[in-house]
Design goal:
Elements: E1 2-7, E2 16-20, H1 22-27, E3 33-38, E4 42-52, E5 62-63, E6 66-67, H2 76-88, H3 93-100, E7 108-115, H4 128-139, E8 142-144, H5 145-152, H6 158-166, E9 170-177, E10 184-190, H7 197-206, H8 211-226, E11 231-232, H9 233-240, H10 244-252, E12 256-262, H11 282-297, E13 300-305, H12 311-324, E14 328-332, H13 340-350, E15 354-357, H14 363-374, E16 382-385, E17 397-403, H15 421-432, E18 435-440, H16 445-452, E19 457-461, E20 472-477, H17 478-483, H18 493-504, E21 508-512, E22 521-524, E23 541-543, E24 548-550, E25 557-559, E26 572-575, H19 579-589, E27 595-598, H20 608-617, E28 623-626, E29 639-644, H21 648-651, H22 658-670, E30 681-686, H23 692-698, H24 702-715, E31 723-731, H25 734-752, E32 756-760, E33 766-767, E34 770-779, H26 785-801, E35 809-814
Parallel strand pairs: 2-5, 13-18, 13-19, 14-16, 14-17, 15-16, 17-18, 20-30, 21-28, 21-29, 27-28, 29-30
Antiparallel strand pairs: 1-2, 1-4, 3-4, 3-6, 7-8, 7-9, 10-11, 10-12, 22-26, 23-24, 24-25, 31-34, 31-35, 32-34, 33-34
Bound molecules: adenosine-5'-diphosphate (ADP) and zinc ion (2 copies).
Residues 278, 280-281, 284, 305, 307-313, 465, 635 line the site of adenosine-5'-diphosphate.
């Protein structure tokens, strides 16, 4: 007997074992997909992990339905990497599998309903709704559940189906279907019958009265004269000048033959202009040499280069080296920083070798990149992608670059695996035995600490390219400005002056406000009531444009009421402000200027983001207002002023990383100013202008920020010297959640004593009607991480054994950021 262990795409701790025949066992390899039955009626796509001859001990192995691949779609490197990920981030291998492959690789199972032909139906015994379904099945052999739903005009059709099953009127069929359809392109060729000289001559003669048709035939030869490639139908249309109908007529007469070929969707289009790789300046060259030197004896090196120092050019050199050696290069960026700006720059150097892997691409495009990487095609030799690009089937990685390594969005938050792409990339580099470069103008405390401790190498560029000075920074005290009545809306006098100067000089301005919408709170000035989200513990944000109140956590929205819902007064006031309000104020303050806004609300859709960036680049916009989307590695030429509308919300965030984040964010936004020639200017408005972090930002003093943060983190036992695991409990009943979290925390305290914090409510303690509570486990240096995790898992086992806690969700976030 032969068996396979498979990974199912669900949160199951263990492998599942199925029976296969001897021939199947010989054919199957780890990394191939199989369709398998699971539970009563489910069908899943599973991934073969191991082929063996040991039957499972506690259950009878079922047979697989069928084999779905001819060769593995997942390789051994990936399986190792995924195993590490599941173990490290405390989730199941199935969850990693689900998140790692394009969703179309996981065939869906859909219930189909068929007429039970082996049973004589007594029509009179059927109820009305049952009869409707029965009747529909006379006309149509197969129905899907949602079709039944519209036939009987009910949402919940399971009871009807259930009765029909009992009366043996119908049978169910689970069927899998492949979602992925490769894109096919149409090509034409001359039919076989006309390949010889003679037959061709006869043909052309017969077409003398159809000059368009003979022109088409001649065009075929014209095209073939230029290139031996297959001829696209579209191309023939263009060259011959004939219409679709003419070509169609020829196909119908069997003179031409049309056929289709599968083509890649992610072709790099446009001519490959030969760009010379730029020669590095002296500082870039020193950094590159340092990187090479470090790579000799260190796996990881950090490139700490100030904004606009030309890090990208250094990456280009390293990538060039890597592909010269015939190896694959992976370039990771935060999702949001993956802009055409950068992609175009890299494509200019490397042409078709660059593939992009991006969540905004559709599933077909992603499958094509996957297959190209799997087949080690040269067109996917360099992959630029967001964090999920880590999961591609690389077999020969020579270099990994993690740009903007400090970015928190490298950490996946939901669903599991809650991995950090930078850290997972380092493990991937280990598996492929290659080097990895982390790059940033504001390195994370962790990475910088690792260079200090000697674990990572360090290379630095301290000057901006072209010796442009770092922007000049100015703090504006909002308290004082308010007192002196110098404010116009949310603009201080200084900021207004500087905007005016920039506009007069024909330069562009970026304004940063870390909140979208018009105002985060609408409040009744009579009774103090402010509208809350019914599903979450948070007030609704006012969006003036749509006259709506919206919840940013669950998407709930309602029209803005004319009067207070509690007391009926119409004296409604707003508190706080978002990007929308800044934009509105600009319209009155600078009516001549063209303003635009870049935040989640204005950048939806595949190209929403690109459009704004391009318009700004081409100077169709004078002032761009935006959230932190603005900070991510954008290179604009003509921005001379950056204004931070309010630094305070960044300073007061309740998180041990708030100060580090604030430093990074402000430095990065400021870095958009004055990237060429003229020195840029940055104005930071704040009610706390004497705050230490703001001082460090304005003096570009990363070192003291680092020292101070390290000191605090050591004091309070936070990373990098300690590790943390955050455990979130989630349930819709308030009391049960409290009890359960308390129970779990007691167990943790028994095991780890004082290094357990909580349970505590997060700032938003209810989201989508689920209450949340967090416990933080701190793991001091020297305490084994894996033993700690096993201990936590043991506590979870006994927790699950308490019946009233079983429905409470327990979510692990290892290295929570
Ligand atoms: P960073 O990523 O460090 O912020 P970039 O790589 O975007 O900086 O470089 C900033 C600007 O300087 C870009 O417009 C880039 O084209 C230019 N630049 C950088 N290095 C060179 C070089 N060696 N030769 C010419 N231009 C360069
Ligand atoms: Zn009121
Ligand atoms: Zn909500």
């Amino acid at each position: 007997m032969y068996f396979i262990d498979v990974i199912l795409p669900i949160p199951l701790e263990k492998f599942f074992t199925y029976r296969v025949s001897e021939t199947e066992a010989e054919f199957l390899e780890p990394g191939m997909r199989v369709g398998v039955p699971f539970g009563k009626s489910k069908v899943y796509t599973a991934l073969v992990f191991k082929v063996h001859r040991t039957p499972p001990e506690i259950y009878e192995a079922k047979e697989i339905h069928r084999i779905l691949d001819e060769s593995p779609i997942v390789n051994a490197f990936q399986l190792k990497h995924w195993k590490w990920m599941a173990q490290y981030y405390m989730c199941s291998l199935g969850e990693v599998f689900r998140s790692a492959v394009p969703s179309a690789f996981l065939l869906e199972s859909e219930t189909l309903i068929l007429r039970n032909t082996s049973h004589e139906v007594d029509e009179l015994a059927l109820k009305d709704d049952e009869f409707l379904v029965f009747e529909a099945l006379q006309h149509q052999s197969i129905l899907k559940v949602h079709e039944v739903s519209s036939i009987v005009d009910k949402k919940n059709v399971l009871p009807v189906l259930h009765r029909l099953l009992q009366k043996k009127v119908i049978v169910l069929k689970e069927e899998m279907y492949e979602q992925y359809k490769p894109k096919l392109e149409r090509f034409v060729k001359l039919s076989h019958a006309y390949r010889s000289e003679e037959s061709l001559e006869t043909l052309l003669e017969s077409l003398t009265r159809a000059p368009q048709q003979s022109q088409v035939i001649l065009s075929i030869f014209q095209i073939q004269g230029m290139s031996k490639k297959p001829i696209k139908t579209k191309e023939l249309e263009k060259v011959s000048g004939a219409s679709k109908a003419v070509i169609k007529a020829l196909i119908e007469k069997d003179i031409l033959e049309e056929y289709t070929i599968k083509v890649d969707r992610v072709n790099y289009e446009g001519e490959h202009e030969e760009y010379d790789v730029k020669s590095l300046n002296e500082y870039q060259q020193i950094a590159l040499d340092d990187i090479h030197r470090n790579f000799n004896d260190k796996r990881v090196t950090l490139l700490y280069g100030v904004t606009s120092s030309g890090k990208t050019e250094v990456y280009v050199q390293l990538i060039e080296n890597c592909i010269q050696l015939g190896k694959q290069a992976l370039y990771l960026l935060p999702e949001i920083a993956l802009t055409t700006q950068l992609i175009t720059r890299l494509q200019a150097y490397f042409g078709e070798k660059v593939s992009v892997y991006h969540s905004k691409y559709n599933v077909q495009e992603r499958i094509e990149v996957w297959n190209n990487v799997l087949a080690q095609k040269s067109k996917a030799q360099i992959v630029i992608g967001a964090r999920s690009a880590l999961f591609l089937p690389f077999s020969n990685v020579g270099l990994i670059i993690v740009d903007e390594e400090h970015e928190g969005s490298f950490k996946q938050f939901d669903p599991a695996p809650r991995y950090h792409a930078r850290d997972a990339a380092i493990v991937l580099a280990n598996l492929h035995d290659c080097n990895i470069l982390l790059g940033s103008a504001t390195p994370s405390i962790e990475s910088f600490y690792n260079t200090r401790s000697g674990k990572y190498g360090l290379a630095e560029i301290k000057r901006r390219y072209g010796n442009v000075l770092m922007p000049e920074m100015e703090l504006v005290d909002l308290k004082e400005q308010t007192r002196k009545k110098r404010m116009k809306g949310h603009f201080s006098e200084r900021l207004l002056e500087e905007i005016q100067t920039a506009l007069d000089e024909g330069e562009q301005v970026i304004l940063f406000q870390n909140r979208r919408g018009y105002a985060p709170i609408v409040e009744c000035s009579v009774c103090g009531h402010s509208p809350q989200c019914p599903n979450c513990d948070v007030s609704l944000t006012y969006h003036q444009y749509k006259k709506q109140l919206r919840c940013h956590y669950c998407g709930y929205h309602m029209a803005l009421q004319e009067s207070c819902q509690a007391c009926g007064s119409s004296a409604l006031d707003t508190k706080g402000f978002g990007t929308e309000q800044v934009e509105k104020e600009l319209e009155t303050l600078f009516p001549e200027a063209k303003t635009s806004r870049m935040d989640l609300d204005t950048t939806r859709g595949k190209h929403g983001y690109e459009k704004i960036i391009t318009a700004f680049e081409q100077q169709e916009i004078d002032i761009l207002v935006g959230t932190q989307m603005l900070t991510k590695g954008l290179d604009f030429r003509n921005v001379s002023l950056v204004g931070i509308m309010s630094a305070d919300s960044l300073l007061n965030f309740p998180d041990y990383r708030a100060h580090e984040r604030c430093f990074q964010l402000l430095t990065q936004v400021a870095g958009r100013a004055g990237r060429t020639k003229k020195r840029g200017k940055v104005i930071i408005q704040s009610y706390n202008p004497y705050h230490q972090i703001l001082k460090q930002v304005t003096t570009h003093d990363y070192e003291s920020m680092f020292k101070e943060q390290m000191y605090e983190r050591e004091q309070y036992k936070y990373p990098p010297k300690n590790r943390i695991i955050r455990i979130t409990f989630k349930h819709k009943e308030y009391n049960r959640l409290n009890e359960a979290a308390e129970w779990f925390a007691r167990g943790l305290r028994k095991a780890f004593g004082g290094s357990v914090l909580g349970p505590e409510y997060p700032p938003v303690a209810r989201i989508r009607n689920q209450y949340l509570k967090n416990v933080m486990v701190k793991i001091p240096m020297g305490q084994s991480l894996s033993k700690t995790k096993s201990a936590i898992k043991r506590i979870e086992k006994s927790f699950d054994a308490v019946s009233q806690y079983r429905s409470v969700r327990v979510i692990y976030n290892v290295d929570h950021v």
